[in-house]
Amino acid sequence: MNRIKRIAVFTSGGDAPGMNAAVRAVVRTALNYNLEVYGINRGYMGMISGEFIKLTSKSVRGIIHRGGTILRTARSEEFRTKEGRKKANDNLVKYKIDAVVVIGGDGSFMGAGIFSQEYNIPFVGIPGTIDNDMFGTDYTIGFDTALNTVTEAIDKIKDTALSHDRTFFIEVMGRDAGFIALKAGIATGAEMVLIPEISGQEEKLKQVLSNPEKKSNIIIVAEGNKMGGAEEVAKKYGKKYKTRGVRVNVLGHMQRGGSPTAFDRYLASRMGVEAVDALMDNLRSIMIGYENHKVVHISFNKTNKNKRGIGEELLRVNEILAK
Ligand code: F6P
């Protein structure tokens, strides 16, 4: 028998398009089980300061197509401390919360893993981050939308690059991961991608910049790339390769906003339903993943200990095509 009567849901870390669809799915599935649902505003911060609100089916009406997160989000330093986590638990007890769904990235699951062990409260995680860097899932919520946003922006930049024979260094998000850069590189036919997972790309970059056959270039730079961000790389190479008309575009936080794609809405909806199903099956400390078109469960232990690799196959495809 399951003794869960009331659950809480919150979003945490960087926002990602599709988080609202996930919140909606969690709320409606919980109501379908006749559970009560509370939303916690501003992630772990709100858990500590007691920002709990009761959610109904109506609370999540008309949000499936909206970017950002209606529950808002934050990164909490205080939750890293024992005192902070004690305050958070006091509030969960005060609001009689029996189980929690956290929607966020690896930092959020790390916190959830520690907290649920300390206070013996079931947590299930839904991966929501545009970076797509979570171990145990082919896709995180928000990645597909961000990738489409980046692709659209680069297509536009490419028009002007071709017209003027210029080289553009375009910086995309990815502090530790190059998934957005690499997939956008394949999708836009970029000449080169610079990503954190690969080192020693200087020689190749010089070759690209001195290729007489190609007067315009798109070079995508993931922000966490080892040679620095787009500004830094352009500064270093722009003078030497003056004739290439080097320009820089930092796409920034626009990559995190916007209406989620159909895929992100679908993914978020499936994961949201599965998260509550898992809690009702007495599962805990797991992330809901999506592998080979199937919803799967992975323990926080695994997601927190492992890093998702970029994949040799993708690198090869890019290598062959980026000529
Ligand atoms: O959402 C993940 C991410 O986009 C990283 O790629 C990036 O480094 C980070 O968020 C920046 O987020 P913020 O400006 O909110 O600190």
Q: Structural class of the helices, strands and pairings?
A: alpha/beta
Number of domains: 2
Strand content: 15-25%
The order of strands across the largest sheet is 3-2-1-4-5-10-11
User: How are helices and strands ordered from N to C?
Assistant: EHEHEHEHEHEHEHEHEHEEHH
Which ions and ligands are bound to the chains?
A: 6-O-phosphono-beta-D-fructofuranose
The third-level CATH topology of the largest domain is: Rossmann fold
Tell me the number of strands: 11
Over all CA atoms, what is the radius of gyration? 21 Å
Alpha-carbon distance between the two ends: 60 Å
Second rung of CATH, namely the architecture of the largest domain: 3-Layer(aba) Sandwich
Q: Tell me, rounded to a whole number, the average pLDDT.
A: 96
Count of DSSP-assigned helices: 11
The CATH class of the largest domain is: Alpha Beta
Low-confidence stretches: none
Overall 3D shape? elongated
Helix content: 40-55%
- Sheet with most strands: 7 strands, mixed
